[in-house]
């Protein structure tokens, strides 16, 4: 049933009952308040990125000067040169891209396989195992930091990029998301038809299931890429050589030096945000579709 907006002062408005008028006014007030909340939330979200980009054009004295100014500074190239001096910036960017791309790619494969298995196969203890998997998402990641370090050291992966991406390629959220998408979007009749045509489990997965998981895969790709890109605690624990630093670790490592060149740090921070923005712009529609598909069924 559609709801028409009635303009105050019209004949229809005069014919409305007092209760109907109250509902109409309340609806308009709520819509205005919602718009204000959304505008303020968008401003609070975007302003830090705008401010870091603005500070990247200023030197240290201008950044710490009294008063707030939105004028663009003239120290951008100086800050870029200084950024190259205080850290291996582009090497750290390459390390982050390498870890994020490799970890995300393998995570899409493993999580989609796990979600498909939980959705299709029947085996003893499946519900208990799936419940434990979902429950593990409530455990704070910091609690696993010491066991993570001990395992990495035991395997001889200290100061190795594999230690940063390999343990996080199979995540409970990823398996849960894939399982929900398979249940909601892939009919059992389609899988049975593939088996009748002689397709094995792996061929059914790669030829039938995987192409239909594109929205969920795009969602998981963004989530995992952002996770690997923003990862800080794990690299801080296992990576010790500056040449192996990821971008978050490299930016943090220069904040303790005397007279920290904050303009250069802000410039590096602004540049490091760009891959995340590009990734989201390319996969935002698929991400929204993937997040809403699992709410239909199952």
Automatic annotation (TrEMBL):
List, for all copies, the residue spans of the domain called ABC transmembrane type-1.
93-283
Which compartments does it reside in? Cell inner membrane; Cell membrane
Q: Which UniProt keywords apply?
A: Cell inner membrane, Cell membrane, Membrane, Transmembrane, Transmembrane helix, Transport
Q: Which InterPro entries match?
A: MetI-like, MetI-like_sf
**Per the record's keyword annotation, is Cell membrane included, yes or no?**
yes
**Gene3D superfamilies listed in its UniProt record:** MetI-like (1.10.3720.10)
Which CDD domains does UniProt cross-reference here? Answer: TM_PBP2
Mind telling me which residue stretches traverse the membrane in this protein? 29-51, 97-121, 128-150, 162-178, 205-229, 262-283
Family, similarity comment: Belongs to the binding-protein-dependent transport system permease family.
Subunit-level organization:
The complex is composed of two ATP-binding proteins (UgpC), two transmembrane proteins (UgpA and UgpE) and a solute-binding protein (UgpB).
Tell me, in a sentence or two, what this protein's role is.
Part of the ABC transporter complex UgpBAEC involved in sn-glycerol-3-phosphate (G3P) import. Probably responsible for the translocation of the substrate across the membrane.
Q: Which named protein is this?
A: sn-glycerol-3-phosphate transport system permease protein UgpE
Organism classification: Bacteria, Pseudomonadati, Pseudomonadota, Gammaproteobacteria, Vibrionales
């Amino acid at each position: 049933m559609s709801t028409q907006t009635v303009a105050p002062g019209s004949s229809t408005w005069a014919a409305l009952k007092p209760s109907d008028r109250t509902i109409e006014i309340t609806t308009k007030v709520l819509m205005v308040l919602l718009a204000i909340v959304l505008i303020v939330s968008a401003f609070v979200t975007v302003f830090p990125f705008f401010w870091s980009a603005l500070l990247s054009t200023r030197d240290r004295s201008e950044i710490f000067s009294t008063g707030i100014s939105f004028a663009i500074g003239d120290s951008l190239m100086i800050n870029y040169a200084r950024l190259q001096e205080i850290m291996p910036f582009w090497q750290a960017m390459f390390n982050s891209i390498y870890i994020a791309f490799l970890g995300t790619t393998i995570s899409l494969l493993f999580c989609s396989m796990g979600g498909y298995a939980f959705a299709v196969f029947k085996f003893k203890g499946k519900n208990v195992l799936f419940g434990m998997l979902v429950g593990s998402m409530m455990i704070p990641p910091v609690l696993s930091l010491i066991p993570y370090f001990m395992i990495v050291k035991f395997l001889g992966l200290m100061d190795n990029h594999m230690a940063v991406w390999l343990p996080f390629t199979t995540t409970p959220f990823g398996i849960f998301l894939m399982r929900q998408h398979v249940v909601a979007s892939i009919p059992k009749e389609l899988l049975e038809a593939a088996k009748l045509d002689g397709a094995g489990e792996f061929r059914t997965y790669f030829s039938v299931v995987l192409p239909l998981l594109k929205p969920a895969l795009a969602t998981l790709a963004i989530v995992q890429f952002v996770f690997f890109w923003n990862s800080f605690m794990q690299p801080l624990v296992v990576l010790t050589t500056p040449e192996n630093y990821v971008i978050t670790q490299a930016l943090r490592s220069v904040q303790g030096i005397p007279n920290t060149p904050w303009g250069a740090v802000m410039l590096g921070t602004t540049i490091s945000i760009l891959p995340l923005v590009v990734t989201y712009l390319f996969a935002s529609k698929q991400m929204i579709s993937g997040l809403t598909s699992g709410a239909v069924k199952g």
